[in-house]
Specification:
The structure is a homodimer.
Chain A: H1 2-8, H2 14-36, H3 39-45, H4 50-56, H5 60-80, H6 89-106, H7 108-119, H8 130-152, H9 161-177, H10 179-186, H11 193-212, H12 230-234
Helix pairs in contact in A: 2-3, 2-5, 2-7, 3-4, 5-8, 6-7, 6-8, 6-9, 6-11
Chain A binds a DNA duplex (30 and 30 nucleotides) through α4.
DNA sequence: GCACAAATTAACCTGTTGGATAAATACTGT
DNA sequence: ACAGTATTTATCCAACAGGTTAATTTGTGC
């Protein structure tokens, strides 16, 4: 009842207000970067007064860190639900790639936030205590898959789990994060349904071929035509 | 003589001034992003008056596009000198990876500029006519290597050259561009000499294993210890 | 030396921005 | 109903930033 009243009058709802502020801030920082983000716009988007940001979260930098922590928390939480332990190792890796890829597609702000934070040389993240502890379980998860793969003979070589994850994230991240410039310079729409499907196939095939030593058919899919030069196309 | 005089008095040297402005702008945009960059700071760094920027190049956005075009021109020019035609295909790919990696290390501003431009959804690049034409020869170069590799039997599968290049760039780019946040969350210095060497080995091994089907020893280098969990390390 | 254009400087202006102050309003327990 | 606290609003401001105007200096062709 008190809760319902709070929701009806969404003023005087501190927790809700805080969430709306963080959501608005996430959008704003993702769209405009740190320096380009406007505190007033965040307030407007959150349906709040500018003063509220400072009251509920803090100054611009604090806001940014809070958004960033929330973003990491969200992806790592979803990853925990992947249940890689019960899949055979190649499938587990394929699933991790698939998840990462689709998570990045579903959450484009995450990519922008990370880029922005790296431009700032992780100056905010370094101040965070939460974020560091989030990642050891995640690395453990991958480490276990790799070890199982090596033991079962599915994987030819033992690969450093961190290195492997960075590579998987890299393949997904770069394509999506840089799709705007890549689309221009290569003159292709990289975000069409077909292009995205093709990319996922390519990434899974690339990583699994390297791990298992068995080439995956999909690696070469759709590429016969791509090997012909433009001149040959018209000829 | 007239040239020498010009160089001595670096005022009244329009071309030189333009170059100094673009260099200063590159540093400023790379360090602070588009919105964070300060026109006054660029002027100061270039040893010029703010009005000079507008006189020689244009407004902030024009300045940014000029810097970006210069950056693309530089990397594509260096790539043209790689001479991949005379190497056997696996070596050619290894060389391309090695070059890309080291170019990114030598030119960190390039990474930042691309990220910034992607945050702006390639709004400047789309206006550029120069940049688009720069890239067909580059794609041709890779296409030829892949085709030769398939014909010689070195490569198991035909892979789309654009897809392959994006993957190579991704592996290098993401690691370096995101090294600040990655170092924090994984608690490792990813930019130490050893870490960088290890990364290059990993990337070359990953891509060549996938292309040739033969696993590369370096893929698993240094990783035996990494497969032990932290608990086991102390045990 | 002189006219003319190119290059450079200095000063200014207007809108904006992050952040602060202080007052008002609504909810809580009593 | 009331006192006290948590939440919210309205307003202000000083610093700054991008861009412009207009005057000044320097080199060039004649």
């Amino acid at each position: 009842m008190a809760k319902a009243k709070r929701i009806l009058k969404w003023q005087r709802d501190p927790e809700g207000m805080r969430l709306r502020i963080l959501e608005a801030a996430k959008q704003e920082f993702a769209t405009h970067g740190l320096a380009g983000a406007r505190v007033d716009r965040i307030a407007a988007k959150a349906g709040a007064n500018k003063r509220m940001l400072y009251y509920h979260v803090g100054k611009k930098d604090d806001l940014y860190l809070a958004v960033l922590e929330g973003a990491y928390e969200k992806i790592r939480a979803e990853e925990r639900g992947l249940d890689l332990e019960h899949l055979d190792p190649p499938q587990a890796i394929a699933r991790l790639i698939d998840f990462t890829w689709n998570y990045f597609i579903r959450n484009p702000e995450f990519l922008a936030l990370l880029n922005t934070e790296n431009l700032a040389r992780a100056r905010h993240l370094k101040r965070s205590t939460k974020v560091k502890s989030m990642h050891s379980p995640f690395v453990e998860m991958i480490r276990t898959v790799v070890r199982r793969g090596v033991e079962s003979g599915d994987f030819q070589v033992a690969v450093d789990p961190v290195q492997l994850y960075i590579s998987i994230a890299a393949l997904c991240f770069f394509y999506l994060s840089n799709s705007a410039t890549l689309s221009v310079i290569f003159g292709r729409d990289l975000l069409s349904k077909e292009a995205k499907d093709e990319r996922l196939d390519h990434m899974v095939a690339l990583v699994l071929a390297a791990l298992t030593g068995k080439s995956v058919a999909a690696f070469g899919r759709n590429t016969a035509a791509r090997l012909r030069s433009p001149a040959e196309h018209t000829a």
